[in-house]
Amino acid sequence: ANDGADESNTTRQNQLTAASKLQDSVVNLLKNGNFESNDGWDVNVFWGDAMGSSGFSTSEKVMGSRSLYITRTGTSSVYRLQQYRTGEFTLQAGKTYTLSGYIKTTGMTGEGEGAMLIIENQTGPAEWNQGRTAPINTNTDWVRLETSITIPDNPYSTDIGVFCQSRALGT
Questions:
Q1: Nearest-CA neighbor of 28 among 38, 16, 17, 40?
Q2: Residues 104-140: pLDDT tens digits?
Q3: Helix H or strand E encompassing 12
Q4: Contact, 156 vs 122, CB < 8 A?
Q5: How many CB atoms lie within 10 A of CB 125?
Q6: Residues 105, 72: contact at Cβ < 8 Å?
Q7: How many Cβ atoms are within 10 Å of 77's Cβ, its own excluded?
Q8: 3-state secondary structure (DSSP) of residue 86
């Protein structure tokens, strides 16, 4: 026989105690942001007398079938891979754009500004709105990094730059 106590208890257990508004979906604006193909990234890009190599690895990956790697072999200047998006989408004034990714480092010497992610938008003839993750210059397993920028009300440019960069020896 049911004396009502079980029904009352079940009703309380099934009551809604919290609710969330419908969340916006995330749209990835980067071409090949997951590195699953060779499109979209300028590899072996370096400034000044930086030395190193870059490419794609199928042996080191956190999600998907491969990852992008940068190996820095010289200690001067900056070595980085870049994706600069022009005309493929329009950045919206006042909107925040976020770059996130996973980085794993090996063979790092602990010297210099290490591996990082950078997102930037030009705000004037020689001015940049830039978001940078904290640099990693020690050996780490896969760690997720994230940085954001907000586009100003009257942007100088609607282009966006995304960089994977290292100024420290290692991969």
A1: 40
A2: 888 887 677 778 888 888 888 888 888 889 988 888 9
A3: helix 5-13
A4: yes
A5: 6
A6: no
A7: 14
A8: coil
